Amino acid sequence: MATMSHPKPATTSPDASLRTGSLLMALAGLGFIGYAVIFFVRNFTDAFLELGIGKDQVSVNHAEIEQFSPSLAHYISHLHIAVSGFIAATGLAVAALSWWGVRRGEIWAYVTAVAAPVLGLAVALPAHYPYHLDTLGHLGLIYLATLVFVVGAVLALMGLRRSRAQSPPR
C-alpha cells in the first residue's frame, strides 16, 4: 500500500507584529490625510487659519488680513492649499507603502514609509515652537497620528527582523 505524503503548506501569513504594525502605520497615514483635508477646508472658511490657531497665536483674522493686503491673503491661502496637498500626499504614500509593502515584509517599503513622514515632521515641527504655534489644538492630531505611526513602525520592525532571522539567506 502506497502512502501519500502531503507537504506542509508554506506559511505565507506575515508575523502578527508585522501585520499589526503595518496596519497602524497605514492608519496613521490615513490620519495624515484627514488632517490635510481639515487644513484644506479651513482655508475656504471664515476660520482661514489652521486648526488650533486663534487670536492668541495670530492677532488678526482673515478679514483683517484681506483688508490689509489682498495679495498677502491670497499668498497665505495658496500656502495652505500647497501644504495640505503635501501632507495628504505624504499620508497616501505612507498608507500605501505600509499596507502593500511593509505588510509583505519589504524592507525598502518600510524604510521609505518611515523616512517620508520623518523628513516632513523634522522640517515642519520645529518652526512651530519659537513662534508659539505649538498648541495642542493645532498639533494634537499630528502628534496622535505620529504616536500611532511610531508604535506601528516599532511593531513592524520587530516583525521584519523576526522574519529576516527565520528566512534562509538569499
Can you put this structure into words, describing what you see?
The protein is mainly alpha-helical. The two termini are 40 Å apart. About 3% of the residues have low confidence.
What features would you highlight for this structure?
single chain, 170 residues, mainly alpha, 68% helix, 0% strand
Cα distance, first to last residue? 40 Å
Q: List low-confidence stretches.
A: 8-12
Counted by DSSP, the helix tally is: 5
Class inferred from helices and paired strands: mainly alpha
**SSE order in H/E notation?**
HHHHH
Overall mean confidence score, pLDDT = 91
Largest sheet: none
Strand segment tally = 0
Give the fraction of residues assigned to helices: 55-70%
Which band does the percent of strand residues land in? under 5%
Estimate the global geometry from the Cα principal axes: elongated
- Radius of gyration from the alpha-carbon trace, in angstroms: 22 Å
